[in-house]
TrEMBL record:
Cellular component terms per the entry's GO annotation: cytoplasm
Biological process annotations from GO: histidyl-tRNA aminoacylation
SUPFAM superfamilies, per database record: Class II aaRS ABD-related (SSF52954), Class II aaRS and biotin synthetases (SSF55681)
Entry superkingdom: Bacteria
Sequence similarity: Belongs to the class-II aminoacyl-tRNA synthetase family.
Residue ranges constituting the Anticodon-binding domain according to the UniProt record: 315-384
Pfam families: HGTP_anticodon
Official protein name in the record: Histidyl-tRNA synthetase
GO molecular function: histidine-tRNA ligase activity
Length: 388
């Protein structure tokens, strides 16, 4: 399916906004950012940012964070921007979530990218995913990998031996790229995860299972040691038989890059992002309008499984053309109800553990202050009726 660049960008913006991401202009215009007087800067150069393996577009989130004064926001920040790939000029969109340590951030990103793929007709795809773990996990893994490779120095290609002088994972990445036999026998980072990182990764996999997302756990998906930590993922386009397409219309990669902030900002800022590139289509001079109406419907959830159910509901409502607000990162009912009131929502949809098990939702009239429990299967028709 051929995708025009204007159609791609228009759909990308609509998808981003639907899942709660807001543009650079929106964030810069917020009072907390404009009035923030606390100075902030980073040390990441162009070559540092390119270590993300995605032309520096993902690690470039550190530029967005500092230039837009996002440190003035003491809350989860959902940020997107329309980008141009260096040198090629290909059109791209970047998604970033700051200040969220929980795995729901990766789930939202993967679902957002997947929805965009489906929206532009690229329905045959699989998510490749791996976890590099936290700092302790990566240190243990590097030590184990170093021991493994040093016992087999005679088998290492000269280039890999040279790369080991900088970092052992660079040597492994080189051998993976060259399809070297030793790379297949090397230890996996998944075998060295801390309890915290293992739980984080398990929750992401649970989301993939619950959402019926096609995925493969790929232990050889590494990323640069100075950029990524914990989850890292990519999207692979396939034909109808499940074979990887050689000519890729879209390229999508993402992951958690908190360690990049720690190195170049000297602060711990939970950061996770994704990049989607439309290959071979240059960014147009005129970009689609960003920012739209404030939705009249607010999704509220309580608990991990209800979060995932809510995320899938948000995507279902997107397909039906029903706009929503949400804060899937929150675990507080009172906070979410207050946010629904502050945004002027007319209706809120509440999913707790009981509703998740029963396949129902609580439909709350925010103006009349009354509510009722209804089957989730009837929600779309109900919303279309009251929201017509």
């Amino acid at each position: 399916m051929d995708i025009t660049v204007n159609d791609f960008l228009k759909r990308a913006v609509a998808t981003a906004e639907h899942f709660g991401f807001r543009s650079n202009a929106h964030h810069k215009g917020r009072t907390e950012c404009k009035n923030c007087k606390v100075p902030i800067s980073h040390t990441a150069k162009v070559d540092d940012r390119r270590l993300d393996g995605i032309y520096g577009l993902l690690a470039g989130g550190i530029n967005a964070y500092t230039s837009s004064k996002l440190h003035g926001l003491d809350e989860p920040v959902f940020y997107y921007n329309l980008e141009e790939v260096p040198r090629t000029g290909d059109a791209a969109i970047t998604f970033h979530i700051f200040n969220v340590e929980k795995s729901i951030a990766e789930a939202i990103l993967i679902q957002t990218v997947r929805s965009l793929f489906n929206e532009v007709g690229q329905t045959n795809h699989v998510v490749k995913i791996n976890s590099l773990g936290d700092n302790d996990s990566r240190t243990r893994y590097a030590r184990e990998l170093n021991t493994f490779l040093r016992k087999r120095l005679n088998e290492l290609p000269p280039a890999a031996r040279e790369l080991m002088k900088e970092h052992v994972t660079l040597a492994l990445s080189h051998m993976i790229e060259k399809n070297h036999e030793l790379a297949l026998r090397s230890p996996s980072p998944l075998e060295h995860l801390s309890d915290t990182s293992r739980r984080h990764f398990r929750e992401i996999v649970e989301y993939l299972d619950m959402s019926e997302t096609p995925y493969e756990i790929e232990p050889k998906l590494l990323g640069h040691y100075q950029c990524f930590n914990d989850a890292i993922f990519s999207f692979e386009l396939q034909d109808g038989l499940g074979n990887s397409l050689e000519e890729k219309t879209l390229q999508a990669q993402g992951g958690r890059y908190t360690s990049f902030f720690e190195k170049h900002l000297k602060q711990t800022v939970p950061a996770v992002g994704a990049v989607v590139i439309l290959k071979g289509k240059r960014q147009p001079a005129r970009l689609p309008k960003q920012g739209g109406q404030n939705p009249a419907i607010h999704i509220i959830q309580l608990g991990f499984a209800p979060k995932i159910r809510s995320l899938l509901l948000i995507d279902e409502l997107r397909r039906e053309g029903i706009l929503v607000n949400q804060n899937l990162t929150s675990d507080s009912l009172s906070t979410q109800l207050r946010q629904a009131e502050e945004t002027g929502a007319k209706y809120s949809i509440i999913i707790g553990q009981k509703e998740y098990v029963d396949g129902t939702v609580i439909f709350r009239d925010m103006i009349g202050k009354n509510q009722e429990t209804i089957p989730q299967s009837t929600l779309v028709s109900r919303l279309k009726r009251v929201h017509a």
